[in-house]
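Translate sequence into structure tokens.
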Amino acid sequence: MTEAEATKKIIDELYAVREQIYNDTKNLSEKEYVLYFNNNAQNIIKRSGYRAVYLNDGSGYKIEKN
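Result follows.
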């Protein structure tokens, strides 16, 4: 699986659980919402056999094979 295919798979999983995420987060503060989303995104990435690596320049993450 290429990195692009892995990224698409992760995004597809995130969209598949968007209703659950909405129901879980509709009453959270903005800070709590961001933490909730980040934790769930990390879990989905790990389950797919990849990991998100924080870039040293602070611009975000890249996805690597675990």
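Note: The first strand starts at residue 50 and ends at 54.
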